[in-house]
Amino acid sequence: MNRKALVAATAFGVVAGAVSVLGGPGVVEFGLWGAFMLGTALVLGRRGDGRQFRDGFLIGLGAAVVSTLVIGGLFPVFLAHNPDAADLLGKDAGAPRALSLLLALGALEAIVTATMLGLASWFTAGLVRGLRGEYERRRPADGWVWAAFGVATLYAACLLVPYARPGSLGTLLWRESMDFWLWVALTLVITAWGLMGSLRRRPLVTRWRAFALLLLLASPAMALAIPTFSLLAYPSSHDYTPSGVPFRLPLDGPITVGWGGATPDVNYHVVSPDQRWAYDLTVAEQGQPFRGDGTRLEDYYCYGLPVLAPAGGVVRSVFTQARDMPIGDMSETEHAGGNQIVIEVAAGEFLFLCHLQPGSITVAPGDEVRAGQVLGHVGNSGHTSAPHLHIHLQDSPKDDEGEGIPLHFHRYRLGDRVVQRGIPTGGFQSGRCAGQIVENVDAAGEGRG
After folding, report:
1. CB crowding 358-376: b at 16 or more within 10 Å, else e
2. Of 28, 53, 78, 366, which one has the fewest beta carbons inside 10 Å?
3. How far is CA 259 from CA 276, 388, 395, 432, in A?
4. Do 84 and 241 contact (CB within 8 A), yes or no?
């Protein structure tokens, strides 16, 4: 990579970082990166030195690193111009933690960007050489090798296109990228094809065949690992446009956030498009959500607590036919939410309250509810290991459809201070609840503490 390319990558990184710092529209930032990557791939692809992937990788890495450093160097300005991104980074936990998270995300983005640019440059070089007729005198590549590249490209598109936040298309592609058996089936079919073809055309193993096999195995491996370990957060198109509804906490008294927040370490739901901003709420004492040995539903502090409407709205659907499951029994998959209520709290915003006690739901479809109204009681129905209240906001009234919308609770107590609007975070450490303990101010009383 020559000096001109280095200067160009640095200059672009500065411009892209400045656009992010000043809170430019996402489509502008996406367009800038798209134009930069396309232009770089075309320039590198026309060269015949065989170093397209390396140079593309280094240029992409340099631009992304510079962009991240610009944002980090102007972090207070970034937070001021991007309030929703500040919530996404968890600024309530402190600026150093938020900055650390930003740099970690920037490092991941740099690697992804560099890899994409390197591959784009490499593919462009191959296309240019093909158009020039340079492959005519060479042995034609195996058809299954090209199919393997096609599968890898398709998987990369399913995983990466959602980051452009295209709405329902992103949801569809993301769900397909997590469909483990789909990618296993494609891998088995193409591997069988490749094995039969390679046995007929010796040698059995070549560099390209080995590379193609690795690409094939990568797709099902990632489709299994990403949802199992919540490695990535789904990039909802609503991430930077949270709901404006002033939600209150749905339980009175001190509440421990089991799972909640923007990142996988505090919220395992983030990998699911519809539950991107979900919470699991419980009650715990010294990190333990139950008394005794915790083998009975009644051992759990939250079991049977009244569930209050977090906001006013119209009930769009209820489900009341699920039974409470024994502790640890997660065999219910047909109605994962168990007994649940769906409330339309604003145009195109649907609030889900799940795992309620059998026979406890007090509302029906069409009912208007007010904030604070008792809707039911905490149970253990549906696909759940222990009693808790699951709550999330999405843009569709149907289960497993749509995209999650950031849900901020208003006026709750966190330690000795009152948070006017925030996203409390969860998490577990050594098997114990380590999430924030919060309490509705109206229930706690303004003067307490």
Report:
1. bebbebeeebebebbeebb
2. 366
3. 11, 11, 21, 12
4. yes
Q: Please tell me which residue, 53 or 362, carries the higher pLDDT value.
A: 362
Structure tokens at 420: 């006017």
Q: Is 259 helix (H, G, I), strand (E, B) or coil?
A: strand
pTM of this structure: 0.72
Q: Considering only residues 24 and 45, tell me which one the structure prediction assigns the higher pLDDT.
A: 45
Answer for the pair 173, 154: CB distance below 8 angstroms, yes or no: no
Which residue in 62, 67, 74 sits closest to 106, CA to CA? 67
Answer yes or no: are the C-beta atoms of 223 and 179 closer than 8 Å. yes
- Which among 16, 1, 89 is positioned nearest to 51, based on CA atoms? 1
Mean pLDDT of 208-217: 84
Residues 253 and 443 sit within 8 Å (Cβ to Cβ): yes
Cβ-Cβ contacts under 8 Å for 266 (sequence gap 6 or more): 90, 259, 260, 425, 426, 427, 435
Mean pLDDT over all residues of the chain? 85
63 is written with which tokens?
């631009």
Using CA atoms, how far apart are residues 413 and 406, in angstroms rounded to an integer? 20
Before 203, cis peptide (omega within 30)?
A: yes
Closest CA to 289 of 412, 431, 441, 392: 431
Identity of residue 214: L
What tokens were used for 44? 């590198």
The strand pair at 428-429 and 417-422 is best described as unpaired
Q: How confident is the model at residue 449 (pLDDT cuts 50, 70, 90)?
A: very low
* Nearest residue to 335 via CA among 347, 346, 350, 324: 324
Q: How far apart are CA 394 and CA 388, in angstroms?
A: 20
* Under 8 Å between Cβ of 182 and 219: no
pLDDT for residue 82: 62
Closest among 390, 161, 416, 165 to 282, alpha carbons compared = 390
* 382 compared with 49, residue with greater pLDDT: 382
pLDDT band at 81; cut points 50, 70, 90: low
Q: What is the Cα–Cα distance from 193 to 220, expressed in whole angstroms?
A: 18
Distance CA 11, CA 125 (A): 25
Pinpoint the alpha helices (H) of 161-303: 168-177, 180-200, 207-228
Token couple for 220: 């099902």
Look at 363 and 90; give whichever has higher pLDDT. Answer: 363
Check residue 326 and report its DSSP letter. P
